[in-house]
Amino acid sequence: MIKVALDAMGGDNAPKETVKGAIEAINADSDTFVYLVGLEDVINKELANYKYNKDQLEVVAASEVIETGEPPVMAVRRKKDSSLVKALYMVKEKKADAFVSAGSSGAILVGGQTIVGRLKGVQRPPMSPLVPTMNGVFLLADAGANVDSRPDFLVQWAKMGSIYMENVVGVKNPRVAIVNVGLEEEKGNQLVKETFPLLKACDDINFIGSIEAREIPNGGADVVVCDAFVGNVILKLYEGLGGGLLKKIKGVLMSSLKTKIGALLIKNKLKEELKTMDASQYGGAPLVGLNGLVVKTHGNAKSTEIRNSILQCVKFTKMNINDKIVKSLENMPTAND
Amino acid sequence: MIKVALDAMGGDNAPKETVKGAIEAINADSDTFVYLVGLEDVINKELANYKYNKDQLEVVAASEVIETGEPPVMAVRRKKDSSLVKALYMVKEKKADAFVSAGSSGAILVGGQTIVGRLKGVQRPPMSPLVPTMNGVFLLADAGANVDSRPDFLVQWAKMGSIYMENVVGVKNPRVAIVNVGLEEEKGNQLVKETFPLLKACDDINFIGSIEAREIPNGGADVVVCDAFVGNVILKLYEGLGGGLLKKIKGVLMSSLKTKIGALLIKNKLKEELKTMDASQYGGAPLVGLNGLVVKTHGNAKSTEIRNSILQCVKFTKMNINDKIVKSLENMPTAND
């Protein structure tokens, strides 16, 4: 069985949705085992609502909770008995294969790197969410873990992202592109200009060159690499602009009796189409390149995203992604600084 | 009269839409004079379609055209008799106050800086488009002119952008923010960390701190400063994601008889709401900080955007924006490199 340590207390909807998501995951897959880490009484009270196979779940007591606003480094260092820190230690000590949390992004990033630790050969694990396009998803690396990156970091992310997309998402020979301000090879900032030839020289990835941000939502690439500052801007602008436009459309639909009738006629089709823009079916954002797997879901994740994140960890572990990553980085010059 | 040199041959829809836009501008404002620069015969043929005051327009012959795909530096250097280069020289020689083109971005950037030249004290003129939000517009500086920027460039852009928004767009005490990956003051890459205290120390701008990309479409700031790499990603992702989502919605509306009937009921309201997201009423993207004004419209600009860009130049010149910019930069340490 693949064992996932779930931070049952993390996120806006914990522990209700975290516990529900855990139950949904183990009910969906008999090879999945979940450690629910957190306040014992609270978790057990939630668990009482469900029927499930007791051999696939265990509650692990943790007396503290890290709040979203807390300074991450301090929180991880001081709250040793928090659900987040305790669950991460279970991965470090190989009691669990992977970790899932909807809690503080900062604490997950810090804790993932300092407690779980990096895989052999990995310089900087990137936060690598799957982001929806008009016709699928792409993996964005790095979406927020490492600002002021170096060219060799981006090359590693391209390799790791390709392995992830091929094995976990099932995209054959994924197209890798680097975010740029134009398509000509002489375009770009210094980081891009230095990284481009390194990516071009990799014979184990399908590098298609530069991608302008305009083409990203059109599905122009399967793995999009960039510095974490740029990646974070892409991810958050996606959320802000997508959310804002949908709110505007809803406002239009609800503005009068006439438009409300119109809304009834298009509602089902609209929902169906927008569902394809929801990446939560793929789980959360993995911090790839650690000794195990650390997955961060949205802070407001509901049970479905928790469930899918747990199943994502199971697939990741079963597919031996980390072995593949270590192997792909073997021939790279490393500067483990 | 304020004189605007229009590159009549630039853009996908030239010279039909450029000539039409020029006519619309001079018919809208009797203080506006337009030089239509380009192939004389072609322009005169278009002009024959319109009635207008001949004292407000003059055709200036230019025998060459710079195409979108040409390498900008070479094109500007070699095609001395192109409409783009000739129109820029008219600004340099003070025959015209401003320049408008829907042509090659690269050639406009290169030509603007090398032919027209920088204002006293300006280090790097930023490409500064007005970008729509859910309830207005913000000025984005820099959207593509200067990658790998320095902190003092961004400070100048904050000042110039504030002057533009206050005087040309009419936003009182515009809120200035720097793009960042979080709101806490310790967040950011090196550029942001170095720029933040400099912006905080400016007493002539209304600096409100960091802005995450998620809040940009919500109208979280009136002037958004960032490195041109990041700005270009913001601008192009806006176009790509906005366009993609609207295409998806259109697809929904056209998918069946039922949804087509629904579409009829919401059409007018939807158009009205989406019109508020169209920034072309404000004209094109100004390259601010030159001895004159250089404005780049979209490559596919129609007459309305051309017209508004010309009127934008008139307002900019009448409001003495360049004097205000020079004055605001006087007390800054300059390193005109």
UniProtKB/TrEMBL annotation, chains A, B:
EC number(s) recorded for this UniProt protein: 2.3.1.274
Location of the protein in the cell: Cytoplasm
Superkingdom, taxonomy of origin: Bacteria
InterPro entries, sorted: FA_synthesis, Phospholipid_synth_PlsX-like
GO-annotated biological processes: fatty acid biosynthetic process; phospholipid biosynthetic process
GO MF, any single term: phosphate:acyl-[acyl carrier protein] acyltransferase activity
Chemical reaction(s) catalysed: a fatty acyl-[ACP] + phosphate = an acyl phosphate + holo-[ACP]
Pathway in which the depicted protein is active: Lipid metabolism; phospholipid metabolism
Keywords: Acyltransferase, Cytoplasm, Lipid biosynthesis, Lipid metabolism, Phospholipid biosynthesis, Phospholipid metabolism, Transferase
Cellular component GO terms held in the UniProt record: cytoplasm
Gene3D superfamilies listed in its UniProt record: Isopropylmalate Dehydrogenase
Described purpose of this protein according to its UniProt entry: Catalyzes the reversible formation of acyl-phosphate (acyl-PO(4)) from acyl-[acyl-carrier-protein] (acyl-ACP). This enzyme utilizes acyl-ACP as fatty acyl donor, but not acyl-CoA.
HAMAP family: PlsX
Subunit and interaction comment: Homodimer. Probably interacts with PlsY.
Protein family per UniProt: Belongs to the PlsX family.
The protein, known as: Phosphate acyltransferase
